[in-house]
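Please, structure for the following, as tokens.
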Amino acid sequence: MNKYDTFTPRFVALLIDGIIINIVAKLITLSFTSVPSILNLLLTFTTANLPYAYSVFLLGRFGQTIGKIITKVKVVDNASESKIGYYQAFMRDVVPLTIVNLALILTLIMVSGEDLGMYEFSTLGKVFLALPGTMLLIWSILEIITMISSVKNRALHDKIADTVVIRTEVS
């Protein structure tokens, strides 16, 4: 088996990591059920960025998330296949991280000073709110296309960060 044949393990790792992140996010939000609006905003920012903090920390420190450890794949530098650092780990997530945070800022601007219980978004407001999700969908599709069309199965974020995902056990 080719050490770059990582599409399926990466997908399974993404599911495992998603479950872990959702559990942690739920625990965080359950801890703050009735909080003032400014703390609620901080909570939203924290939970929205949790997947990226999880990924950057674990990949920068170990080259693997928990899901990647379980599925026996590792993120390494593309040229040397050595351990990556926090910069490359961050660059892997820079595009979705930017989209998510711009969406948070846009939403904050749109609803600032409004009573959220009574707030009704205009048609243009609804389009603006749908835009980041659409951008993330397009990003995800481009990730898959670049991964399946690359010799080393490098997704777009791998190309940006100059990384590659390899199997830790090759049979």
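The beta strands are 73-77, 163-167. The mean pLDDT is 89.
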